[in-house]
Amino acid sequence: MPEFDLLPRGVLQGTVERMLLDRATQPESRALLEEVLRVIKGMPAANAVQVVHAHWRSDTWCSHCGAVKLYSPDNRKSNLFCHMCAAKMDGGEG
Ligand SMILES: [Zn+2]
User: Fold this and answer.
1) Helix/strand/coil for 4
2) What separation in Å is there between the alpha carbon of 26 and the centre of ligand 1?
3) Cα-to-centroid distance, 22 and ligand 1 (Å)
4) How many whole angstroms from 35 Cα to the centroid of ligand 1?
5) Model-level pTM?
6) DSSP assignment of 33-59, as one string?
7) From CA 45, how far away is CA 9, in angstroms rounded?
8) How far is the CA of 51 from the centre of ligand 1 (A)?
9) By CB count within 10 A, which of 26, 52, 54, 68 is most buried?
10) In sequence order, which residues have a C-beta less than 8 Å from that of residue 42 and are 6 or more positions away?
11) Is 83 helix (H, G, I), strand (E, B) or coil?
12) What's the gap in Å between 45 CA and the centre of ligand 1?
């Protein structure tokens, strides 16, 4: 499955708007940045959620929500994500 970088539209839009206000003194540069803004506003939204990175504290508690790790015969697979908050258990601080 391909991976994508997802950028918050508002941050990108705000950056271009600041460039438009601060740096675009020539009509050509203003027109170019206004076109960039139109493109940004027209891009489709992704149906995505931000991944929370966490770890199992003392190999027992989720560092993000405090849920107790579940034990099952298939421990390795079931503990890659927290069953309560869905944090990805890859060593992040959570
Ligand atoms: Zn959790």
Assistant:
1) coil
2) 52
3) 43
4) 43
5) 0.56
6) HHHHHHHHHHSPPP---PPPEE-EETT
7) 9
8) 12
9) 54
10) none
11) coil
12) 27
